[in-house]
Amino acid sequence: MRQIWIPKAGPPEVLQLRDALDPLPGQGELRIRVEAVGVNFADIMGRLGLYPDLPRMPVVPGYEVAGRIDAVGEGMEVDWIGRDVLAATRFGGYADVVCVSEHQVFVRPPEMTAAEGAALPVNYLTAYLLIEVMGGLSSGESVLIHSAGGGVGIAAIQLARRIGARIIGTASSGKHDFLKSIGVDHCIDYTQEDFEQRVRELTQGTGVELVIDAVGGTSFKKSFRALAPTGRMGMFGVSSSVTGKQRSRLASLRTALSMPWLQFNPLVLINQNKGVFGVNLGRLWEEADRLSAWMEVLLQYYRRSVIRPVISEKFPFTEAADAHHYIQDRKNIGKVLLLP
Fold first, then answer.
1. Which one is the CATH code of 2-120+309-339: 3.90.79.10, 3.40.50.620, 3.90.180.10, 2.60.120.10?
2. Where are the domains of the chain?
3. Which residues contact 123 (CB under 8 A, 6 or more apart)?
């Protein structure tokens, strides 16, 4: 098999493609011949040495794959072999063969491509938690979606549209036409406009009922202020700590110092009637039953055409560095994939 390794922290060029023996599935495991791998911002933060959950380097990153079962471990039914599936992998996904536990594997609907399957788990589970499970978004409410053109952003837009919410999205101007075409009511160019002020204008000074924010730092403060009474803010990343292709301790320090360490204290939340919550899908791998139930909901949404992953670009394994560059250069609208 072939795997993409992070041997040490650094720019995209540190990624290495290596050969290894095909793994054998253990008890309760299924082996997948991978056809597509999802690339996530967590992979980039891991490559930079900024992702605390990443195992010690050298390491094979990767959270999601899609392909076909070609072998089963002890205790597994042989009729799994030949099925087209998608799977969540806690690291190790940047490979053309992976072995994963049965509870992390889901049969793809017949009409779902491998590319769509690899684009589904991380982005859509994260968005589902932010919008429905924890965000509690209701019809007629307003939601502010930061980084609306990214994988989680587009997933959140589709889920919010299903609910019947009013959608405001932040993105660079070149992505606005596409975002409006998939249901965003108002786009804000965060490079040219103050999103907090613009949200106030769009909501006649009231604010929004839900914000989802993976930017971090000062953005958390502004997002909190943009909430209406009874509003909720979901935090799921700190992309502002990544300012270049290599790790910057200064950028990390600036982001840390700009965090709202004191603003979200209990008295403020009580008196302003606001809520704040966080989502880290990587810390939910032990919640197998709940993850499986949420994924089944998402697969039902797919079958009903409520959601459809948007694929921005596909890169062969040999161009993994280019895939990371593509995301860090903010070129993607939707999901970036690696193909063996």
1. 3.90.180.10
2. 2-120+309-339, 123-281
3. 38, 40, 151, 152, 154, 155, 309, 335
Asked if domains 2-120+309-339 and 123-281 share a fold, the reply is: no
DSSP 93: -
Taking a C-beta distance cutoff of 8 angstroms, is the pair 241, 198 a contact? no
Domain boundaries 123-281, CATH class:
alpha beta
Sheet holding 227-235, edge to edge: 186-188, 166-170, 142-145, 208-213, 227-235, 275-278
HSE (CB half, 13 Å, CA atoms) of 1? 21
Cα–chain center distance at 25:
27
10 Å Cβ neighbour count for 300? 12
Instruction: Express each pLDDT in 270-318 by its tens digit.
Output: 999 999 999 999 999 899 999 999 999 999 999 999 999 999 999 999 9
Burial class (CB in 10 A: 0-12, 13-18, 19+), 2: middle
DSSP calls for 250-278: HHHHHHHHTS-TTTT-HHHHHHHT-EEEE
Distances (CA, A) of 283 to 14, 53, 90, 188, 286: 26, 8, 10, 31, 8
Tens-place pLDDT, residues 154-212? 999 999 999 999 999 999 999 999 999 999 999 999 999 999 999 999 999 999 999 99
